[in-house]
Design goal:
single chain; 16 strands; binds zinc ion; 9 helices; globular
Length: 320
């Protein structure tokens, strides 16, 4: 599924949810929706100093570049929008979101964890850039402590550019009466903060977002059980398979490879598999290459690949 310059209806990808793909400038109706603002791992695509075959096409052609994984959440009812994660690409991502939600209010940012692709965009709220006033930043306890005790983030707090709002694992926050977000703690390299994924719910639909997690077995929840309770699951697809990083022992990289996730989910019913949308691709991931064998394999086996600009409506039988 590619983002096209004209409106395109993508049917048959999600059996329970008809997903409509629109351009980033499409006018919303009253259905809250999620927009995928980036699909790459923390370092973006192409990656700094990479002159290998994986990144050469993207250095040569701007259209092949991809932003760091983030979601926008737009609620036309309350006329507000939010960001899920503040990435190094926040300038263009917030711009895209503002274009999609004209005259709506920025409701703040929900942070998954303290790795560079997920929170460092906060710096653009400071006085060197936006000079924002008390933008709500929703974060877990260790993440809040990290931001309050370390520069340059604590300066954003002292100057009231941002204001921290508490999240707690498995505790549902009603962002609006009809719209809720629930953080779920997941295992990951937690040097500075804990890591969460989010379950976002509105209008009887729910979307799971887990951009970073260690192997599925390390999670206290069973991913298949969680999958059953949501309509769409945007899941860690950092690496396609073992051996993708030629000079590195990939056992040190505990992400679930897409090939492993597919093997695990292959026994599920087609309607469960079709909920899975892989995201957060490392620059080496062949999924980033259009028409690649890896991409075809994912789609052939009933799963999906996230695309920048993809829209996921949050309402029963919604059409946009
Ligand atoms: Zn990440
Ligand atoms: Zn590369
Ligand atoms: Zn991470």
């Amino acid at each position: 599924m590619q983002l096209k310059t004209t409106r395109k209806i993508c049917t048959g990808l999600f059996s329970l949810l008809v997903l409509f793909c629109t351009t980033a400038t499409a006018q919303p109706d009253n259905t809250p929706y999620i927009v995928v603002l980036g699909v790459a791992q923390d370092a973006g695509y192409p990656q700094i100093a990479c002159a290998k075959a994986c990144c050469r096409p993207a250095w040569a052609d701007r259209d092949r570049r991809r932003s760091v994984a983030a979601l926008g959440l737009v609620d036309p009812v309350s006329r507000q929008y939010w960001l899920i994660d503040a990435t190094p690409d926040i300038r263009t991502q917030l711009h895209e979101l503002r274009k999609m939600a004209p005259e709506m209010t920025f409701g703040g940012v929900f942070l998954t964890h303290a790795h560079i692709g997920h929170y460092t965009g906060l710096m653009h709220f400071g006085r060197e850039a936006m000079g924002a006033r008390d933008i709500p930043v929703f974060a877990m306890p260790r993440m809040r402590q990290f931001l309050s005790q370390n520069g340059p983030w604590e300066l954003l707090l002292r100057l009231h550019n941002i204001s921290l709002k508490p999240l707690s694992a498995d505790s549902t926050l009603n962002v609006r009466p009809h719209l809720s977000i629930t953080p779920m703690a997941v295992p990951h390299r937690d040097e500075y903060s804990e890591t969460v994924g989010f379950r976002i719910e509105a209008g009887g639909k729910s979307v799971l977002y887990i951009p970073d997690i260690d192997k599925w077995d390390k999670w206290q929840k069973k991913i298949e059980d969680v999958l059953r309770t949501v309509d769409v699951a945007l899941l860690d697809g950092s690496f396609y398979e073992d051996g993708e990083l030629p000079n590195r022992d990939m056992s040190e990289i505990p992400h679930p490879f897409i090939s492993e996730s597919m093997r695990r989910f292959d026994t599920l019913a087609p309607e469960q598999r079709s909920k899975v949308v892989f995201i957060h691709f490392n620059h080496t991931n062949p999924v980033l290459q259009p028409g690649s064998q890896a991409r075809r394999e994912i789609e052939k086996r009933g799963y999906n690949v996230a695309t920048q600009g993809m829209i996921i409506p949050l309402a029963e039988g919604s059409s946009r």
